Amino acid sequence: MARKRKGVMSETLKEELAKELGVYDKVSQEGWGSVPSRDCGNLTKLAIQKAEEMMRDGRF
Length: 60
Hints:
Layout lengths: L10 H11 L2 H7 L6 H20 L4
């Protein structure tokens, strides 16, 4: 039986990043499965950038 993995990013953070990238409408209407892998990769890059900025600024 497969285990369900717990996500690293919260749904709220993913939604905020999707809004920044302009794919939130697609996510809210059709779900994450409808988002192209290129956009998901860009979302991941943006999340990493934000985490690095927070660490650099001492907010993490």
